[in-house]
Amino acid sequence: MSAERVFSFKNVWFTASVGAVLGVAVIAALIGFVWIPHFQSNNTITGVWDAICTAAGVPDAYHPPQLPASPAARPSNVIVTAQMMRPADSLAIGHGATLAMQCTMCHGLRGMSEANSPNLAGQFDAAIYKQLRDFKSGHRKSAIMQPLALNLSDQDMRDLAAYYAYLPRERSVASLHQEQQPPVIVRNGAPMRNIGACASCHGDQASNTAAPRLDGEPEAYIRAELQGFASGTRRNDINQQMRNVTRQMTPEEIDAAARYYASR
């Protein structure tokens, strides 16, 4: 009779003990199946049931890694080579000439600027196309070029590139009679500082990588872009190749490279 009285819910102490054990079990379950899995899951758990299944070892659905949401996290959204550009026909060049009418204020009637903007006549089509794509995506910043590029389709950008590549590259009378020897930084680079020769990527024979031809570009423009790469304000270079190079260049070497290419 005494045993029945001890294990009876009429016994206050027995009821309190059972309630305490159940309470501890519930709290332990919440901690083990909900709280701990939630804070160990890198915020991939979406609910209580998901947390319980994770703690119980139920296989979770595969969550693919997320790419950075901001386009600025990548230097560019396009890699272009000369082989990717189709041979331009007269229709593409004519359409590009029509589109280029809105570019004449900065880049000149025949693609030769008088405002320290880039000379586009005779420029590699792959180089022009890549820069237009980067302006449109926001990977290259410009208060002037970005609004203009936003309205261009991919075919528009290809046709513009074809038109400017078709135009003859004009040289000034002074440059025809003034042939300068390339400075060391252009001809040989600085191997001890991990700087390759500028001529290895920028020149008449270096069109396969979509690197722009620098011959005859305005000195102020070349200098400003090199300084932009060095400071990090311009960053649409694939694999940071230009930023890595220009950070190692001295101001005198930047000036020498800009002066040399502008004179050609």
Describe the structure.
This protein is mostly helical and 264 residues long. It has 13 helices and no strands. It folds into 3 domains: 13-55; 75-170, Cytochrome c-like domain (Cytochrome Bc1 Complex, Chain D, domain 2, Orthogonal Bundle), CATH 1.10.760.10; 177-264, Orthogonal Bundle (Cytochrome Bc1 Complex, Chain D, domain 2). It has helices at residues 2-6, 12-39, 48-55, 90-99, 104-107, 125-137, 145-150, 154-166, 173-176, 184-187, 219-231, 241-248, 251-263. α2 (12-39) packs across α3. It starts with a helix and ends with a helix. The model has no long low-confidence stretch (mean pLDDT 83).
What is this structure, in a nutshell?
With 264 residues, the chain is mostly helical. 49% of the residues lie in helices and 0% in strands.
Helix content: 40-55%
Per the principal axes of the C-alpha atoms, what is the gross shape?
elongated
Number of domains: 3
Question: CATH architecture of the largest domain, please?
Answer: Orthogonal Bundle
Give the CA-CA distance, first to last residue.
114 Å
CATH superfamily of the largest domain: Cytochrome c-like domain
Gyration radius over CA: 33 Å
- Percent range for β-strand residues: under 5%
Kindly report the average pLDDT value.
83
Pattern of helices and strands: HHHHHHHHHHHHH
Give the uncertain stretches in residue-range form: none
CATH class call of the largest domain: Mainly Alpha
User: Largest sheet, described in full?
Assistant: none
